[in-house]
Amino acid sequence: MKKWYKLTALLLAVLFVLAAVPAGDGTSILPQAQALTQKDIDALKDQANELKGKRREVEKQLAELKNDRSTVLQRINLLNQQIAITEEEIANTESEISGYQVLLDQTAYELEENKKQEEKQYALFCERARVMEEAGTVSYWAVIFKAESFSDLLGRLADIQEVINYDQGVLDTLRQLRAGIEEKQAYQEELKAEAEAAKAELQQQQQSLESQRTEANNLVAEIEANMAEYQDLWAEIEADEKAVEADIKKKTEELARQQAAANGGATTPSVGGYIWPVTTSRKINSPMGSRNTGIPGASTNHKGVDIGGVFYSSRVLATKAGTVITSKRSSSYGEYVVIYHGPGNTTLYAHMSQRMVSEGDVVVQGQVIGITGSTGIANGPHLHYEITENGARVNPLNYLPGWIKNW
């Protein structure tokens, strides 16, 4: 019985190699189209290196401005850039991990197909050996029983004249395929190691992102807690908001003129018909109107409402259909978008972590235009939302049914 175990082991070794041989019709047993290649992974690695370079440059600038109160807005802006880069790095690493998994799945599929083919080749090989033994042309069993290893088996078979005449090409192919399979198995182990390394890198990036967000939020909290010492900064923030307002007015009027010209001069103001800009929260952290800034006797006019309870992951929706007239970063509003809905009618969405539309894009109601965040002058994640009708800001709470007071 031990000899039969030895025979089976040797035959299985040969047939594992045979499993990789293409089918008789010339087609491969592997998937016809692969979704991903090592080249795609390498491209993601190159992108990761570029992002690391950008991050190091931002970190350098932050270090130069540290503890300089006159550059607070620059620091906040750089922190926002740093956060954006880290978010890109995280997305890139997640894609890399997904890529490794695809390659691992492909490799596992190939090996599984090899096993299936192995069973077929095993039956054919045994049948051929039985026929040759019965014909008495050569004692295959005797040759196999004397072999001590797979390499020894190939050597002994190669010495048989009938094998040389009939199977030498197959044996050469077997040796090549054996080397190929061993290489594939080594590649599989390499992929597993790189995937684990990428997962560890992702964990570090996520920790860095949390630290960066905390630093940005703490800096804004410091400003809010010591506004009397930041009067010049507050004036700069107010100036930035006015510049944004002037830009919106200019673009709104220009687009209204263009549409009026296209409609032969007829215009119809669009009023009402809004939906909530997020679906994950109904909490209003701050209403529209005057609010204390921390400076004795001073206040600022909050030009919209702040929707809280959204963290850094809620999708921001276009509350009405329209045309994007602004999509950029501002010192005070952070990442923000403005949509034109008709003459005098716009909506503004601010402090987002990501913008997903560009100036000139035509959007439909409910389309995702960004992701909530805490960029600009924002102490924690929320969405600042404004509405103008007939060229003047109106209270968004009049158009947000079911809102919950959270201030």
Short description:
Helix content is 55%, strand content 16%. The chain is of the alpha+beta class and 407 residues long. Strands 1, 4, 6, 7, 8, 10, 12, 13 and 14 form a nine-stranded mixed sheet that branches. Strands 5-11-9 form a three-stranded antiparallel sheet, with no helix packed on it. A two-stranded antiparallel sheet has the order 2-3.
Verbal overview:
The protein is α+β, with helices and mostly antiparallel strands. The chain folds into two domains: 221 residues, no CATH class; 166 residues, Distorted Sandwich (Glucose Permease (Domain IIA)). The N terminus is likely disordered.
Find the structural class using helix and strand composition. alpha+beta
- Which overall shape is indicated by the principal axes computed on the Cα atoms? elongated
Strand content: 15-25%
Q: What is the N-to-C succession of helices and strands?
A: HHHHHHHEEEEEEEEEEEEEE
State the domain count.
2
Which terms would index this structure?
alpha+beta; 7 helices; elongated; Glucose Permease (Domain IIA)
Task: Draw up the topology in text.
Elements: H1 2-18, H2 38-65, H3 72-135, H4 140-146, H5 150-158, H6 161-225, H7 231-262, E1 283-286, E2 289-292, E3 299-302, E4 305-307, E5 315-317, E6 322-330, E7 334-342, E8 345-352, E9 354-355, E10 362-363, E11 368-371, E12 383-389, E13 392-394, E14 404-405
Parallel strand pairs: 1-14
Antiparallel strand pairs: 1-4, 2-3, 4-12, 5-11, 6-7, 6-10, 7-8, 8-12, 9-11, 12-13
